[in-house]
Q: What sequence folds into this?
């Protein structure tokens, strides 16, 4: 499936596999090895496209100590262009716009291959620190320079639980040019269903067609990974946290939970008439978690087919 074309046509049903580019300090010979390993798992995952994340430190997101240290990574656009040349399927390039000056962001927008590349524009994690370019200005630049570049935005179901207005944020971004949405890692399907229902109802009230919404799933192989997810703002319901902590295999339990959440969201999206896609996030360096992410991707491929 051509994900770029699917989003342009407002269709869901596609599967992405999300990875983080290698660390910026990776030696050249090791970088080649990692890239080959990345290509192997991308082929094994049998996804329709990939998502390449743009990592920012985001220390202002949470005052608590970060469970894992922040290490800068290769720029996702450059990594695709110079190292993933054998990858020809659709690719979503995340852009943490605050990291880039307007000229830097403008140059990338102008050079992006709109037939293969889509982008997700990500704003600052705190309103007190907008960085070099604001999210509003990034949307303006995209509209001025590359209106043909398929562009998406972030969806945070937890924010809807706290504020009740995430669907209005979605529609505001849609008016600015967002053609699809991608959630952060999802462990609370009730929160996601609440925002999806509110979005569908508001679209109906305004006479607007809902755009594809992509829900991100990720396996959790250890309690430290669970702590990091919660540090990032991922809401893990109490009963689920309890089950993961007591499970004989945290990894196996989280894989089954992610599968059931994905099935729930795909079925609910179909009932609402909102096109839904899925994204399996695989950012761990642990082999067992990488293999589990690939396994989850293959399982979700069948879910979308059904």
A:
């Amino acid at each position: 499936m051509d994900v770029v074309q699917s989003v342009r046509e407002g269709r869901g049903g596609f599967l992405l596999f999300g990875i983080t580019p290698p660390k910026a300090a990776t030696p050249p010979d090791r970088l080649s090895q990692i890239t080959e390993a990345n290509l192997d798992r991308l082929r094994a995952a049998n996804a329709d496209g990939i998502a390449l994340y743009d990592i920012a430190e985001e220390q202002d997101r949470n005052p608590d100590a970060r469970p894992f240290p922040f290490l800068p990574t290769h720029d996702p656009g450059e990594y695709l262009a110079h190292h993933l040349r054998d990858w020809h399927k659709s690719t979503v390039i995340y852009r943490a716009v605050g990291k880039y000056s307007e000229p830097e962001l403008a140059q990338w927008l102008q050079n992006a291959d709109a037939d293969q590349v889509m982008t997700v524009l990500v704003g600052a994690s705190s309103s007190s620190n907008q960085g070099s370019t604001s999210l509003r200005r990034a949307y303006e630049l995209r509209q001025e320079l590359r209106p043909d570049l398929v562009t998406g935005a972030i969806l945070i179901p937890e924010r809807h639980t706290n504020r009740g207005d995430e669907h209005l944020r979605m529609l505001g971004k849609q008016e600015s040019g967002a053609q699809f949405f991608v959630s952060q890692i999802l462990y609370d399907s009730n929160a996601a269903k609440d925002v999806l229902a509110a979005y569908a109802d508001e679209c109906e009230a305004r006479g607007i067609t809902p755009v594809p919404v992509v829900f991100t799933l990720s396996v959790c192989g250890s309690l430290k990974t669970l702590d990091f997810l919660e540090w990032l703002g991922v809401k893990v319901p109490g009963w689920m946290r309890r089950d993961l902590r007591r499970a004989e295999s945290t990894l196996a339990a989280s894989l089954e939970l992610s599968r059931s959440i994905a099935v729930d969201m795909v079925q609910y999206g179909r009932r609402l008439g909102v096109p839904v896609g899925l994204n399996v996030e695989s950012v761990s360096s642990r082999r067992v978690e990488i293999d589990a992410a690939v396994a989850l991707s293959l399982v979700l491929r069948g879910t979308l087919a059904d």
Notes: The chain has a mean pLDDT of 91. Residues 3-305 form a domain with the TIM Barrel fold (CATH 3.20.20.220). The longest strand covers residues 90-96. The two ends are 15 Å apart (CA to CA).
